[in-house]
Description:
globular, two-stranded antiparallel sheet
Amino acid sequence: METPVLERSSEKSQIQGVVDCDVHPAFSKPDQLLDYLPERWKTHVRDFAVRTANPLLGTLPYPRMTPGNGMRRDSWPPNGGPPASDLAFLQQQLLEECNIDYGILQPLAAGSMAFNQELGAALCAALNDWQIDKFAGPEPRLKASICISQEDAKESVAEIDRRVTDRRFVQIAMPPRTLEPCGRRRYWPIYEAAEHYGLPIGLHTSAFGYRPNTPSGWSSFYLEEHYAASNSLQTVLSSMILEGVFEQFPKLKIVLVEGGFSWLPSLVWRLDREWKRMRDEVPHVKRKPSEYVRENFWYTTQPIEEPENNRHLLDILRWIGTDRLMFSTDYPHWDFDDPRFAFKVPLTPAERSAIFRDNAVELFGLK
């Protein structure tokens, strides 16, 4: 029987083999993505810009507390450029110092949110080329995400088909604040392709989307936006289950990224109770919502909720299942979770290994 151990700040040698499921690469200059666009779209962007639902074109909706829109103060490369734009510095500061064996790239750019969907598809294709050229190509420890323009399902599937044979891509990236709830059938061709190829779909909450960051509209403060990160992910989970996505695609794998996870038990308790009462309305949902949750969803860990009594967090971890959680740093953002200090709860060695490495290795096929 394995002996539970209390996590403490660990030395480098004690955290071998971490997989970081949320690394944000950055452009070295604001217009770097233009280099990867066809001439037709370069001209369009220069003449008309990229229009999205973001209320302030070219800026984040809320001010961040540090220079560079909320980056770690020590993450600015010494040779210049924004945080996470210099591969050599990223390798040193993240991969080497934190003993990261693999990092999953989560690009945050406007392609998936562009009102002009043809332009959005071109931007997503450019993002995919850029990831390989600047990061996943020269550094095999970094794995790319297939960015798609999800509102155009046909083009999204075509982009997945084009990239899937390149094993440097390990997941499909899709934003959670979509034009319609994620369970709607307009997105099913994407899910069919993901299931067919065995690729997880990562839904990363972010500052942008077709919808405001709360169900009642745009909030007033960055603190509210940061807290509300889990809202859209809860909607994703509920919509996909109740629309019957997992009855149609039972092997589909969904990763909810950067939305925390402590909200999951109470949401699922309520979904199960209401399903028992009102299941006649959704006869296509054959099983309790909790059963789909346990089979089709995974969660990255940052930001980790930290109650005063850390054993309360352990109760939540055990309920969710430590086989469902995957460690993430959110590098280079200000609320970065360092694997040497994260999870100060009494995990067993097997649970620790699962969260920090094994679950991601299995899900993303990193063996």
